[in-house]
């Protein structure tokens, strides 16, 4: 998963204004105004080459105006940025909630166990299909995150520059956790509604606020979720899977796969992503 990655620039910002009276400059932009050498180290400069190669997001003007409106409603400050970063990086307060709810529905043992687990399996299958679609779509839709895109960088504090990814389309975090929320709709509509709202507020919004994604990245993910889930719900439960889903066993392939899914879901697929990157580097070296 391509999520917002902290660069530790906020800490550098704090250290660079240590000898400057706090009342003399705005705390948020203090290190942007003093100690030029420290500022250059703390704040990565605009990556113009990346922006030229990958281009600009769809509906750039609309994205710009939407971000302007958001930051007018919720202006940037060191406290707000640190809180948003806390939500993004602390999975226990965000992504693990989705993994926990998924497990609670899986472990219910009653006459509807097989059908319930089939709905949960549909979420996993839809997720795999959607991710494949996004990887293919990146051949035509590719642009750097706002914090790495010079025309958009001015909207963010300087210490957030360069903290995003080279291609932010789409928001895979939104795709993953909004899909879990939507996928639970046939099982429990109130829980589904709460989780989908939580996905937008706690998963999508902080990443947009910190410069990791554009609004169009999030909207594209939402559209893809509804499309894939709408199609996957038409898939009937195969008879060959009925016994496998309803079997009562303490250990086995099903439980192992469930454990891997829940762990990666809770950790925002960090382990899987690092494994892919390691394999990619190995292939490049050979």
Walk me through what this model shows.
With 286 residues, the chain is mainly alpha-helical. It is globular. The longest helix is centred in the middle third of the chain and has 25 residues, at 113-137. The protein has a single domain (9-285), classed as Vanadium-containing Chloroperoxidase, domain 1 (Up-down Bundle), CATH 1.20.144. The chain is built from 15 helices and no strands.
Topology:
Elements: H1 9-16, H2 30-33, H3 36-42, H4 48-54, H5 60-73, H6 78-89, H7 95-107, H8 113-137, H9 150-153, H10 172-183, H11 189-209, H12 215-232, H13 239-246, H14 253-266, H15 270-285
Helix pairs in contact: 6-11, 7-8, 7-14, 8-10, 8-12, 8-13, 10-11, 10-12
Keywords:
286 residues, mainly alpha, Vanadium-containing Chloroperoxidase, domain 1, 64% helix, 0% strand, disordered N terminus
Please outline what is shown here.
With 286 residues, the protein is mainly alpha-helical. The chain has helices at residues 9-16, 30-33, 36-42, 48-54, 60-73, 78-89, 95-107, 113-137, 150-153, 172-183, 189-209, 215-232, 239-246, 253-266, 270-285.
């Amino acid at each position: 998963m391509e999520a917002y990655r902290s660069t530790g620039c906020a800490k550098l910002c704090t250290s660079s204004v240590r000898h400057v009276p706090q009342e003399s400059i705005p705390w948020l932009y203090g290190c942007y105004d003093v100690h030029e050498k420290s500022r250059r180290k703390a704040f990565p400069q605009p990556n113009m080459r990346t922006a030229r190669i990958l281009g600009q997001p769809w509906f750039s003007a609309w994205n710009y105006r939407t971000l302007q409106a958001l930051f007018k409603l919720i202006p940037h400050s060191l406290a707000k940025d640190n809180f948003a970063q806390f939500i993004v990086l602390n999975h226990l307060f965000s992504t693990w909630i989705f993994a926990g709810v998924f497990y609670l529905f899986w472990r219910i043992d009653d006459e509807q166990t097989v059908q319930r687990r089939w709905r949960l399996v549909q979420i996993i299958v839809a997720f795999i299909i959607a991710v494949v679609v996004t990887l293919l779509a990146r051949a035509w839709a590719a642009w750097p995150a706002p914090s790495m895109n010079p025309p958009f960088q001015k909207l963010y504090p300087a210490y957030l520059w360069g903290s995003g990814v080279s291609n932010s389309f789409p928001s895979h975090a939104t795709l993953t956790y909004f899909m879990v929320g939507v996928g639970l709709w046939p099982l429990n509509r109130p829980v589904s509604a709460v989780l989908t709202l939580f996905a937008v507020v706690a998963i999508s919004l902080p990443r947009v606020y910190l410069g990791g994604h554009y609004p169009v990245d999030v909207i594209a993910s939402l559209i893809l979720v509804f499309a894939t889930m709408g199609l996957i719900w038409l898939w009937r439960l195969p008879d060959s899977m009925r016994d496998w889903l309803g079997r009562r066993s303490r250990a086995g392939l099903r439980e192992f796969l469930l454990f891997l899914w829940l762990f990666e879901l809770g950790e925002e697929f960090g382990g899987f992503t690092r494994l892919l990157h390691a394999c990619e580097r190995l292939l490049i070296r050979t």
